[in-house]
Amino acid sequence: MSLIALEGMEFYAYHGYYAEEQIIGGQYTVDVYLSTNFDKAAEKDELSGTINYETVFAITQEVMQKPSKLIEHVAQQILTQVIALEANLKHIKIRVSKWNPPFSSKVERTYIEVERSF
User: Fold this and answer.
1) Low-confidence spans in the chain with pLDDT less than 50
2) Which of 6, 40, 89, 115 sits at a 20 to 30 Å CA gap from 80?
3) Cβ(77)–Cβ(112) under 8 Å?
4) Which fold has domain 2-93+113-117?
5) Alpha-carbon gap, residue 99 to 30, rounded angstroms
């Protein structure tokens, strides 16, 4: 099994449980890790033998543009769409980080992760 990773995708988005968060917005980072077999792509130098990470980025970007109350929901939407895209996927992990969440004291970030194995 091999790993394809998209780390540090940065987005300004309008997610949050509180109305102010959906108005003001905030900075988010998304990391996606995909375990698959890309031996065919490595041998033949053909994109058809692997997962196109440009497509994974486009899915992530689209989901991040739709306001949600919870980053758990955001991660699940990315997960569902990437799984539907790729039948050769063996494992997926997605981390959504919310920078400077609205607490009474400084918290650098919060994040959630979702993972699935097939």
Assistant:
1) none
2) 40
3) no
4) GTP Cyclohydrolase I, domain 2 (3.30.1130)
5) 11
Contact 88/35 with Cβ under 8 angstroms?
no
Identify the residue whose tokens are 């990315």: 78
Query: Which parts of 7-70 fold into alpha helices (H)?
Result: 19-24, 39-44, 53-64
**Rounded distance, CA 66 to CA 64, Å?**
6
Per-domain residue ranges of the chain: 2-93+113-117
| 9 sits in which H/E element | strand 2-13
Nearest to 66 by CA among 76, 54, 53, 55: 76
Residues paired with 4 in a beta bridge? 34
Task: Name residue, tokens 């997610």.
Answer: 15
Q: Residue 21 and residue 68: Cα distance in Å, rounded?
A: 10
